[in-house]
Amino acid sequence: MFNATWLETFSTLCEIGHFTHAAERLNMTQPGVSQHLRKLEQQVGQALISRLGKSFTLTPAGEAVFALGLSRRAEEKRLRDAIEADDRNAGPVHIACSGSFAMLLYPILLPWMRAGPDLSVHLEAAPQAEILAGLLDGRFDLGVLGADPDHARLEAKHLGREELCLVVPADAADTPLSFADLEARGFIAHPDGYGYADDLLRLNFPDDYPGADRLSVRGSINQIGQIPAPVAAGIGYTLLPRSGVEAFANKASLSVYQLPKRRWHELWLVMRRGRCLSARARHARDIIQEAAGQLR
């Protein structure tokens, strides 16, 4: 790579066309300008100018190097402008969270995206391990995890918690439900549902719960936005975090059945430690906190 100082000296010399005046512009001596020119020519391996008395013309190599100098100036100016602007409505931001929280968060992000045509928001629903890995390798600016990762390269802020819910049709809200009643209805299964069952159903039906692998399954689906749909239609029951219930379009057709023993999942906002967030990442952080506030 060419020495940036020598390249800038040469570019200024080319613009002005005079050694003495170029030295004045750069606050240097004329011998200093000549020395930078010689060193740059040594790097290039060719002469960059042809002297004509006190004036000079550029060689073909000199013209190419001058063009490079101007290009680097333009790139540096664009970089400075981007840094100084730090517009919250321009540029990319990458967020990762659970599928249920993504359903709640995304509609809140949409007005911001509509207001910023130069903004690019990337929201990824991912498993906890993938979110953690993405934060560490820089793929995600912000992540929402279910626990403080307690990692030296990450910092975490507690957002609150969300309840793990037993979701039944709206007309079943006031009917006492035993485990046998749930089995009669049948479980609407999904990839996280079996773990949720071991968490919540075992807690509340310790004498009857046989384990997730022995549940009576009425149906299964891996599209998180559609998990509550059969329950809303009166078919079966399911288990979801509160965010998955709140984000469902037809949530009036659902009811969260209050079991004697409630279970909560923590929410932590996580980012790289010591990282100076851009204006857009800071605004995304505020929106995430707003979404988490809806779960209290």
Automatic annotation (TrEMBL):
UniProt keyword annotations, A-Z: DNA-binding, Transcription, Transcription regulation
Coiled coil (residue ranges): none
PROSITE patterns attached to this UniProt entry: HTH_LYSR (PS50931)
Transmembrane parts of this sequence: none
Keyword Transcription included in the entry's annotation: yes
Family of the protein in this entry: Belongs to the LysR transcriptional regulatory family.
Protein name: LysR family transcriptional regulator
Organism: Loktanella gaetbuli
Organism classification: Bacteria, Pseudomonadati, Pseudomonadota, Alphaproteobacteria, Rhodobacterales
